């Protein structure tokens, strides 16, 4: 089982990237046509929208699920696919400059994803190297069970905590209460 610390520097970066993924994914999904037109890749509108769904899924995984490492590696793989699509789009394209800007932005995000993955793996290695505390000799009681047995048998019972006379067993009649 992988250990993760939900307040570590790596996890904080992963959460930030998760929010970024959701925002980018929503933009790609909702404005896929405008983004494609800006990059001169109008024929890839549906592909950009599909990438938006991938980004949203990865972002939700980073924010909502336990270990963020698989989701960060998913972001890195998605970035590689994005860069391949953008590199293809930059060929013989009248707006290759815009696609180049997008390529640079994806490259920067990829670098951040790689830094995050490294941090998460280093933190996990650190926590795995710590000794595991041994609590097998503990019972959870302040003293040994044998020392506590009967300790409260001679404690005084408050009047309001006693059984009412009417409900007490009467040995002479064998019944409860007075008739």
Parts with pLDDT < 50 across at least 5 consecutive residues: none
H/E series, N to C?
Answer: HHHHHHEE
How many DSSP-defined strands? 2
User: Alpha-carbon distance between the termini?
Assistant: 67 Å
> Count of helical segments?
6
Looking at how many chains there are and whether they match, the oligomeric state comes to: single chain
What global shape is seen?
elongated
Give the percentage of residues in beta strands: under 5%
Radius of gyration: 32 Å
Strand order of the largest sheet: 1-2
Helix/strand/pairing class, anyone? mainly alpha
Strand count, sense and closure of the main sheet?
2 strands, antiparallel
Indicate the percent of residues in helices.
55-70%
Mean pLDDT: 82
Offer a few descriptive terms:
transmembrane, mainly alpha, 6 helices, 2% strand, two-stranded antiparallel ribbon, 179 residues
Can you offer a commentary on this structure?
With about 180 residues, the chain is mostly helical. The protein has a domain at about 10-130. Helix content is about 60%, strand content about 0%. The protein has six helices and two strands. It has helices spanning about 10-30, 30-40, 45-65, 70-90, 95-130, 145-150, and strands at about 170, 175. It has a two-stranded antiparallel sheet. Helix 1 (about 10-30) packs antiparallel against helix 5 (about 95-130). The longest helix is centred in the middle third of the chain and has 34 residues, at about 95-130. The model has no long low-confidence stretch (mean pLDDT about 80).
């Amino acid at each position: 089982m992988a250990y993760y610390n939900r307040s570590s520097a790596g996890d904080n970066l992963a959460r930030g990237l998760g929010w970024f993924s959701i925002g980018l994914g929503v933009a790609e999904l909702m404005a896929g046509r405008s983004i494609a037109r800006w990059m001169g890749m109008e024929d890839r509108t549906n592909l950009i929208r599909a990438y938006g769904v991938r980004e949203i899924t990865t972002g939700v995984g980073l924010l909502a699920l336990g270990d963020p490492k698989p989701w960060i590696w998913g972001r890195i793989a998605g970035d590689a696919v994005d860069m391949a699509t953008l590199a293809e789009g930059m060929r013989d394209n009248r707006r290759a400059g815009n696609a180049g800007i997008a390529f640079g932005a994806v490259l920067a995000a990829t670098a951040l994803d790689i830094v995050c993955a490294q941090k998460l793996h280093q933190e996990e290695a650190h926590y795995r190297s710590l000794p595991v505390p041994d609590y097998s000799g503990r019972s959870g009681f302040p003293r040994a069970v044998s020392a506590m047995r009967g300790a409260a048998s001679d404690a005084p019972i408050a009047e309001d905590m006693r059984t009412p006379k009417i409900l007490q067993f009467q040995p002479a009649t064998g019944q409860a209460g007075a008739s």
